[in-house]
Amino acid sequence: MSDQEAEAGLVTPEGDDGAGAGTRRGRGMFAVVLLLLLVLSGVTAVTQTYVTGGADTVIRSVTENLECLQCHVELIPEFSKTSVHNPFATERCTTCHTPHGEIETTTVIAGIKQAWDRARTLVQWLPVKFVLDFFSDDEEVVVEDGAEVKSVTEEQVKGEESELVMPRDELCWMCHGDMGSKVNVAYPHAPFATGNCLDCHDPHASDFGHMLSMDLDDLCITCHKMGPELARSQLHPPVEGFHCTDCHDPHGSPYKGMLVDNQRDLCFRCHPSVAKLSGMAFQHGPYLNDACTDCHEPHGSNFMPLLRNSQPALCYGCHPAIQTDFLKASHHPVGTISLNCTDCHDAHGTNYAGLLYSEGNDICYDCHALAIKTSYDSSLHAATSCWACHTPHGSAYEPLLVDAQPEVCLACHDAGLYDDRVGGGGANHPVRSSYYDVNAREPLTCTSSCHDPHGSLNLHMLRYFPANQDGNCLICHAVIPGNVVGVDF
Omega before 286 cis (within 30°)? Predict the structure, then answer.
């Protein structure tokens, strides 16, 4: 190829293929850079939106309460109290309250400001947005900067007065739903059942535990007038210390009186000596049937130990028939300073019938040991219980006999051998009260002068002389010069 042809452009110069490849590589590089810019713009936009939105949420949760405290300065000292309500402590007043009193101002601006905002919108997808945000302080553009205020409008966007975000009887459940199980219990506390939580609790902060509105020592008695009970001679220790919630649930309970447990188990917590009686063979009805307060006052009493009445009046409330026994001619001195029902009976439980402290004659020996025990245990009557002859409460026959004499004796001893009215044509010695015992100076019976029913050192349980001597007879049947005693032979 000649130089002329090359100069004339008739022939393609060598190396043209290399120039085309370079052009293509440049276009490809440009595309890659553009793609990277787009990806970077998207990532930065998403990241900025996420970070800004999260920060805004945190800032808003903090500033909400700060905004409220600008007016409600009286609440500021409450942050230092012992118990602070969590929404109040974390500065989230609007958890419970609706905001109020805020005016929103809307300003429409034309001119430089308007053009500036449009430019920012057009380049929103570019990383340049960071630069624009950096130099923009979002301050209102004044007229001197070329802006023109077209209009200004004000609108109250919050209520005039703050209100609760939910009805008062439902609001607390929003956070304290775990208390819901107590709503339908058999015995709810009235303020809790009606949603009046603020009757007992302060909604913001308190110097008392559980955010109570006052010390527990004073809180319960503002509604529960216990003055008369507190003035009694004996107080239940939890009441004396105003530890009401030791026994009562302040919200509600399935047990009567809002007790934290059934009566037996609740009382057993502090009275283990009584608890151990729950395994006894015989248990008092109220004790067995979870009714401790049938006998005991739970707060205070003038009768020890916290009884609802004095003994035996308290017992007569359930045992009226026994009260009738104690009105009979011969009766134990129950109700006096020397004897009461619980001197013989355990009020809770024992292993012996009748709730007695011991079995057999031992219960009687507690009082009659010196006078009776030694001779009786060695007598022919030793195998016979005291109850066979005596009633424990009261009787029309002295001394507390279950029947008149000689019937009480003839229940065991053959009447044909001892009763002057039975058999032998009246050969038996008179033992009827229609006869007079000149020695004992009382109606003549088996025991007036002849026999000691509790035992003696003499055969046949004779009172005064051995059976082989006439002394027992001569007490009544003796001839004394100048005086006739009994029957003169």
Answer: no
The alpha helices in 373-429, defined as continuous H runs, are: 374-377, 407-410, 415-418
- Give me 184's structure tokens: 């339908």
* CA dist list (Å): 86 to 115, 170, 408, 453: 47, 18, 81, 82
Closest by CA to 149, choosing from 140, 138, 136, 158, is 140
b (16+ CB within 10 A) / e for 91-111: bbbbbbbeeeeeeeeeeebee
Separation between Cα atoms, residue 446 and residue 448, nearest integer Å: 6
Orientation of helix 128-135 relative to helix 16-69, angle to 10°: 40
For β-strands 234-235 and 147-156, DSSP reports them as unpaired
Question: Which contiguous run of DSSP H or E holds residue 13?
Answer: none
Angle at which helices 112-122 and 128-135 pack, to 10 degrees?
Answer: 150
Query: How many Å separate Cα 389 from the centre of its chain?
Result: 50
Q: Is the dihedral of CA 457, 461, 467, 470 positive or negative?
A: positive
Cα–Cα dist 132/120, whole Å: 7
| 8 Å CB contact between 389 and 325 | no
- Name the E strands within 385-441: 394-395, 436-437
pLDDT band at 6 (very low <50, low <70, confident <90, very high): very low
pTM of the model: 0.67
Q: How far is it, in rounded angstroms, from Cα 266 to Cα 260?
A: 7
Range name among 167-171, 209-213, 313-317 with the lowest pLDDT average: 167-171
